[in-house]
Specification:
By secondary structure, this protein is α/β, with parallel strands linked by helices. It contains nine helices and ten strands. Strands 1-2-3-4-5-8-9-10 form an eight-stranded parallel beta barrel, surrounded by seven helices. α1 runs parallel beside α3 and α8 packs across α9. The longest helix is centred in the C-terminal third of the chain and has 19 residues. The N terminus is likely disordered.
């Protein structure tokens, strides 16, 4: 493969969701060991993912910054940080600001969240005026049953159709929706603030989040195009490693994902982060944050 020009300033982060069923501390450890530039914390029912102080200690201990926070927008996290969706986003903003994260990933409202959906565009526009943290609305997909398409999100599952300042492009989700990821990136233009790198195979299948290069999505093409797009965000690996039989297999998937992304970005592995320690080392017999 030919040389791909570097994209200056593009950091490659690991989503904590990528180590499931392992937990948040394991993601920090994996990111440090494999040489990721940071992590995106997916706020889930794991208490550690919700705890600002523990996240800060994990970041300091491993020398791995928190670069983004994924707000608890899933059905299974409807009660995490309360039931008020704006309360969740304000809590995510607080965590992001205090940890120095640049982005909060947010899903479009579910269609039954009528008041939230009605105010969603204006509310995120207002938040953009109040904080330097970017609330980046992620592309999702329509739900299908027995050949019929159902609307689950409002104003829309596609951020191209939503009038908000910033968006996240997820390539596993473009596979499920049958969207062209490169066209979606074109349509988002300067609103594209965040990329979730993963792969998928075909519309209507489960949301696969494959290691990039293992599906049909234009992962390499999108990565190679970010420089010409003037992209100033980061790339986050959000891959599914649940099928891994061992921790070694999971780390191999995460290492392959990182290598693929850096290769196609054309970026060399960064120098060791200031204050980072070699994998497996610790200072002063410190207790690992988040451990029992």
């Amino acid at each position: 493969m030919g040389h791909v020009a570097p994209v200056a300033g593009v950091q490659v982060a690991l989503s904590t969701a990528s180590v499931f069923p392992e937990r948040t501390p394991d993601a920090f450890e994996a990111a440090a060991h494999l040489g990721y530039d940071g992590v995106e914390v997916m706020v889930t029912m794991d208490p550690i993912s919700q705890d600002l102080d523990v996240l800060r200690r994990l970041s300091d201990y491993h020398g791995v910054p928190v670069l983004a926070v994924h707000a608890p927008c899933l059905l299974i996290t409807q009660r995490v940080w309360g039931r008020d969706p704006w309360g969740k986003l304000n809590r995510a903003r607080e965590v992001a600001e205090k940890l120095g994260a640049k982005v909060v990933v947010v899903h479009p409202p579910f269609r039954w969240q009528r008041e939230y959906a009605r105010d969603f565009e204006a509310g995120l526009t207002q938040l953009a005026q109040e904080t330097e943290v970017k609330f980046a609305v992620e592309n999702l997909y329509p739900l299908r049953a027995r050949g019929a398409e159902m609307t689950a999100y409002a104003p829309h599952w596609n951020p191209v159709e939503i009038d908000t300042p910033h968006a996240t492009l997820d390539l596993s989700h473009t596979a499920v929706s049958g969207s062209d990821a490169l066209i979606m990136a074109d349509d988002l233009g300067g609103r594209l603030a965040h990329v979730h790198m993963a792969d998928g195979t075909a519309p209507g299948l489960p949301d696969e989040h494959l290691v990039p290069g293992h599906g049909t999505q234009p992962c390499a093409e999108l990565l190679a195009s970010l420089g010409s797009r003037g992209y100033a965000g980061m790339v986050v690996l959000e891959v599914n490693t649940r099928r891994a039989q061992t921790g070694e297999e999971r780390r191999a998937d995460l290492a392959e994902s990182l290598a693929f992304t850096r290769e196609h970005l054309g970026a060399l592995a960064p120098a060791t982060r200031p204050g980072a320690r070699p994998p497996g080392s610790a200072s002063g017999g410190a207790t690992r944050p988040g451990s029992a």
